[in-house]
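Every protein is a chain of amino acids, and every chain bends into a shape of its own. The protein below has been through that process, and both of its lines are reproduced in full.
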Amino acid sequence: MSEDADEELTYAETGVDIDASEAATAALVGAVGDIENTTDYAGLLDVGDRYLALATDGVGTKLLVAEALGDYSTVGVDCIAMNVNDLVAAGVEPVAFVDYLAVEEPSEEFSEQVGEGLSAGAEAAGVALVGGETAVMPEVIRGLDLAGACVGLAPKDAVFPGEATVGDALVGFPSSGIHSNGLTLAREAVTRNHDYDDPFPGSDQTIGEELLEPTRIYADLLPALRERDVHAAAHVTGGGWTNLSRMGAFRYEISDPLPAQDVFAFVQEEGNVSDEEMHRTFNMGTGFVVALPEDDAESLAATTDGEVVGEVREGEGVAIRGLTLT
């Protein structure tokens, strides 16, 4: 065991400073100038009676777990999910996806595995794969990087307003696990005392396989969401539960959070990570949250696997499990 094995890990200390990342993003947006019809999750282009929507994202350092296990068969699902879920959070139906695979050197084996995941993810999301790009860049890339962009369409009156209302109920939908965010912290935590091929406690999977559990795709929720008066939605990704602030400057009281999968407790214990840091980094069992009137919320929860987890109040921050995140 290393001398610093008992030190408390934070996301910033492992190499990802969320505040610095947000500042850099703001600088980029400021330099670009005005961007029309942009939501927190998708760019919208007016094409007459509809919006054409675009979202882009990647898999992140989850790829390093895949590399360690020699198993890239699921990361394509993550790539599809991270993009599709952003469109769903805007109220947009995803229709097509294009990928970008950058590699240090070409490999038929891992390219085939990536393709299998992309195909599975596209089928689950109901989107068409319309080609992509593979770039060989040995002086830029170590291993590989996988990203993509998704295009969607929505009638103008179907796009969610994007702003919650005081008194709204919050419906949360379970995640499938750690999804594709916070892996820089998770990897550092679990490898302090373990290898990726060690058994995960109480499971027939290894630690690495538990981390590679594909991101849940929420596209199947869109019809049910559109049938109700959804005011805003949040895809709980990088930044963890602070993502709820994308629905407006309110206080989000999470009185009945969904249970967090065992992988989160394992990461927290192995990395000596604080409760606050865990909730600022990971989805903690809930990958998607919707704000809507109470009656609609009860109806939505009754017809999906969602549950009413809290409400929107005056104030600021996210109150969950005894914490207040701002």
In short: The chain has a mean pLDDT of 93. The first helix runs from residue 18 to 32. DSSP finds ten helices and twelve strands in the chain.
